[in-house]
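step 3/5: co-fold with pyridoxal-5'-phosphate
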Amino acid sequence: MVDTKTQYHKIKAEVDAAVIAVMESSQFIGGKPVNDFAEALAKYHGSKHVIPCANGTDALQIAMMALGLKPGDEVITPSFTYIATVEVAALLNIKPVFVEVDKKTFCIDPAAIEKAITPKTKAIIPVHLYGHAADMEAIMEIAAKHNLFVIEDNAQAIGNDYIFSNGTTKKTGSIGHIGCTSFYPSKNLGAFGDGGAIFTDDDALAIKLKMIASHGQSKRYYHDVVGCNSRLDTMQAAILNIKLGHLDEYIAARRKAADYYDAAFAGNKKIEIPFRKGNNKHVFHQYTLILHDTDRDALNQFLADKGVPSMIYYPVPAHRQKMFDAFGGNSYQLPDTDWLTERVISLPIHTELDEEQQAFIVSQVLEFTGR
Ligand SMILES: Cc1ncc(COP(=O)(O)O)c(C=O)c1O
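step 4/5: write tokens
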């Protein structure tokens, strides 16, 4: 699905030098590379504060802790997402309240959010799934009206420019009270291991987020609140700082690959190409089709037999996962989420795809579906 090896070889000299510099310094935790990366990312992102951490899952957990969410509070999230988004809520005994997504954008449906608000609701967690932005303008309006926090799960959409109706543009992940992202190796900005970051413009929140990520310390060995240990290690920061300089070109390569697929599948009645709402610049973390009147799992197997990877993101929505039985997961009626879960399939998309590879992938998909 990705080709991180070729991508590395294109920037090998820079990356190798940065890694060797960290090894020579023998400062493996914290230090200048971490600070430099946080500063560069804040600038790129247009966020006042960036708190690096160990992974995207931790970022979400630390965000919920910093906002003071308590057991019994409710957070409204899509069920059609990667499990991390909602798992950390459950871990903190916060109730995830699952709502529908928009069948076109795959992102949380603002109308469904309004209906799910109760006196216990404390936050909304939109996920910019596959790299397409959730409808942040509507979500922020709902949050303001009901005095709720917004935590953006931006793990799949770093670099997406969201355009408000008044024409202003902001990066996804910098619009809510807190944004969270992941540097998992296959992400659009991927480390050579795990990594994550938290974004906020709020000075007081930034202090709390930093403290919680560092054992609740206000200064070394003085622990003011219960926290955790979540650090972006120095080597990852050094690598990410180099890759950040290439992020816009990586996004452009993904969008070009998406354009190629779009053109190749256009007009095919069985294949619905990814919708691109005009209010944001889809960064195509995934290229995900909706199949109509097609045996999706058979196509998945057919492609595998031809040496073409394809993936189902995600085969079981969160509300149907066993882990949420205790939270009444199975009592939810989310027909659009179920509908999508049965029909989506993602094709390889990354920065190194060439037209020859794409032509082969397309030919195999069309051999199965018909033209
Ligand atoms: C939507 C979403 N949220 C959260 C995460 C968690 O990130 P990580 O794997 O870095 O913990 C991921 C990625 O894996 C993700 O895709």
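step 5/5: annotate
Residues 55-57, 81-82, 84-85, 127, 153, 155-156, 182, 184, 194, 196 surround pyridoxal-5'-phosphate (CB under 6 Å).
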